[in-house]
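We were asked to recover a plausible sequence for a given structure. The inputs and outputs are reproduced exactly as logged, with field labels preserved.

PROBLEM: sequence recovery
POSITIONS: 94
GIVEN STRUCTURE:
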């Protein structure tokens, strides 16, 4: 299984072999930086690997070869070259 939202690797040893998790501290830092720069828009802001707020962690059960493939894919996602997330709610919030 793959854990989500936090590092779940220790929750079920031998079952959860990797996790995609939110860096809550990084999310708040991103928000504060945008706000202080006058760039925080009243919309649903799309945050992910490109903004440095989602990371991956692996257990030792994941081979170095698989880690490398996943890390390469994560880099491409962060660069906007592999996947493009489009919000379902792009309009400004009232």
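RECOVERED SEQUENCE:
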């Amino acid at each position: 299984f793959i854990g989500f939202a936090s590092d779940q690797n220790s929750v079920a040893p031998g079952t959860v072999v990797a996790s995609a998790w939110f860096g809550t501290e990084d999310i708040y830092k991103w928000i504060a930086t945008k706000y202080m720069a006058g760039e925080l828009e009243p919309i649903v802001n799309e945050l992910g690997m490109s903004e440095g707020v989602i990371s991956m962690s692996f257990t030792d059960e994941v081979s170095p070869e698989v880690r490398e493939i996943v890390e390469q894919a994560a880099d491409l996602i962060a660069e906007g070259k592999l996947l493009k997330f489009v919000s379902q709610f792009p309009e400004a919030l009232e």
